[in-house]
Amino acid sequence: MKVVVLTGAGISAESGLPTFRDAAGLWEGHDPMTVATPEAFAADPDLVHRFYDERREVLARVQPNAAHQALARLEQHLGEDLLLVTQNVDDLHERGGSQRVHHLHGRLRSAWCTSCDRRHDWSNSLGDRPPCPACGQPALRPDVVWFGEMPYGMDSVHAALFDCDLFVAIGTSGVVYPAAAFVHYAIGNGADTLELNLAPDPVSDFAQVRQGPATENVPAWVEEMLR
Ligand SMILES: [Zn+2]
Questions:
Q1: Fewer CB in a 10 Å sphere around the end CB: N or C, the chain?
Q2: How far is the C-alpha of 171 from the C-alpha of 60, rounded, in Å?
Q3: What is the pTM of this model?
Q4: Are 212 and 13 in contact (CB under 8 A)?
Q5: pLDDT tens by residue, 189-219
Q6: 105 belongs to the catalytic site
Q7: CA of 63 to the centre of ligand 1 (A)
Q8: 49 CA → ligand 1 middle, Å
Q9: Is it the case that residue 30 has pLDDT exceeding 90?
């Protein structure tokens, strides 16, 4: 059985990471347009670096939860028949035990050199303009996908969706992109679909929707899969 799982902010919220936007449309007090676009970075790199440096520091203080750990157990069972795709830039799936995680929107703990195009695992600050370990230029930026930039590796995700037997969305609304698009690819291939989300989605296209906290619903679903 080939399975594609998409996770969003809802799975990390239960570890204490705030979701991308609050009710006022702000991300940790910032308008995303001022910290998460290439134009914002060009206009005020100090602000953008400070913002992501803080996010990286917060990430170091939180832990993966039972939902992340359950998906790692599923990977042990399914091996390469599981593709775990996440919209999250945190590393809680990896720290929860998952070996292969496709980060659509990049990773907080990665730095991308705009001079030589190389990427480096990165846990420290970028705001003090450290040199790129490869080329020496002080040209590192957060390796996250900003508004107006292309998500990473969409071709391989689409290929997996066209080839899967089951598509599951966790902690991300089934009615907004990318889950809403992904579910159509999966349905087009005849796959089953399941959404695990905190809030109900009255017009979701998923065949099955289970409402509740990810830390309860995900371990329960994985147990069903392993049986
Ligand atoms: Zn470089």
A1: C
A2: 21
A3: 0.95
A4: no
A5: 999 999 999 988 878 899 999 999 999 999 9
A6: yes
A7: 31
A8: 17
A9: no
